[in-house]
Amino acid sequence: MTQSRPAALITGASRGIGRAIALRLAPRWTIVALARTAAELESLAEEIRTGGGACEPIVVDVTDGPAVRRALEGRHVDVVVNNAGVGVMKPFVELTPEDWQLMMDVNVNGVYHVTHALLPGMIRRGRGHVVIIGSISGKSGFAGGTAYAATKFAVNGFAESLMLEVRDAGVKVSVVMPGSVATSFSRTGRDQSWKLMADDVAAAVEFLLDAPQRMLVDRIEMRPLNPPKKT
Do 176 and 133 contact (CB within 8 A), yes or no? Predict the structure, then answer.
């Protein structure tokens, strides 16, 4: 791996927004890519290596706290992008306990496990950046989104509180809150052309990481410019 480059660890890196972030950062960053699917991770790593970059794939489930700690504790990374997320959109009365627990485990507990393993090293070094991919749903609920929006409200509170804890140690914390993005979250069979693209979110992450060290951008909200008119 290329040691002269800073290292960016990205969760949920095998597809969608996570993959777009990894590919956008790869020309200048060593990528540490986390996901549950080995084949998709290796495909990403091969694409990055073919382009002259460096990528270390790590197969791990972010909901498994002990496994995350074994894989990450003591590792030197300059940036962690907490991107892994799931969404089950349905009326609350149809939401099963398993649906609820899955979203809480991935969207909230996964952020805890990964950040808790890596943050102490950033604090010791006096430098680092924790980025969380949230959602506009973290400030505006919607029908069918009781659990999903609850997780995104939770990570907003987590990010703001953590930012206030660690900024004096030289560590930045930022949350990126996109509106509708054309990914696997999207319903099939409908026009997606009006939505944000995964690379748009990746561009926002790159902007955060390129900001001067003296500048902290703690929140980015981004929306499609021309959503369809409601009827």
Answer: yes
